[in-house]
Design goal:
The protein is an alpha+beta fold and 133 residues long. The protein has helices spanning 2-11, 17-49, 56-63, and strands spanning 71-76, 84-94, 98-107, 110-123. The protein contains three helices and four strands.
């Protein structure tokens, strides 16, 4: 009879409440870490999806011209970069045809956050000459 009782007692062994709570906490902390890693990965993937727009495309287009005139110009990128606008200011630096061009690009929805700024010097001796300031 005693042999049957000890065999039955061994078969009824179970986890205590504290062991179950500790195991649940370890599982919860592990799941939180996995979820945090997933959300960070998704955020980084969305950031990579956004296209960075800078002033080099506007500068490249202007560099193809042979003549420059002082002044201010602005526009948008059309379907290439929807939602972004640019502006440029052309200033004659020397009387020999040297011009400084300042470019700015920003999101049309948030004009305060400038995306890109750039300045270049272009030598265009065929351009109309004005007096040196």
């Amino acid at each position: 009879m005693r042999l049957q009782r000890s065999a039955a007692r061994r078969g009824l062994r179970a986890f205590t409440l504290i062991e179950v709570l500790v195991a649940s906490m370890v599982l919860a902390i592990g799941l939180m870490g996995v979820l945090l890693l997933c959300s960070t990965s998704i955020r980084n993937a969305r950031a990579l999806n956004r296209m960075h727009v800078d002033a080099t495309s506007v500068a490249a287009e202007l560099s193809l011209t042979n003549r420059l005139e002082e002044g201010f110009d602005s526009g948008d990128f059309g379907e290439f970069h929807p939602g972004y606008v640019w502006q440029r200011e052309i200033t004659q630096v020397m009387t020999n045809g040297l011009f400084r061009v300042d470019f700015s690009v920003w999101s049309a929805s948030d004009r305060q956050a400038t995306e890109s700024k750039m300045s270049i010097l272009l030598f265009r001796p065929d351009s109309p000459q004005k007096g040196f300031r």
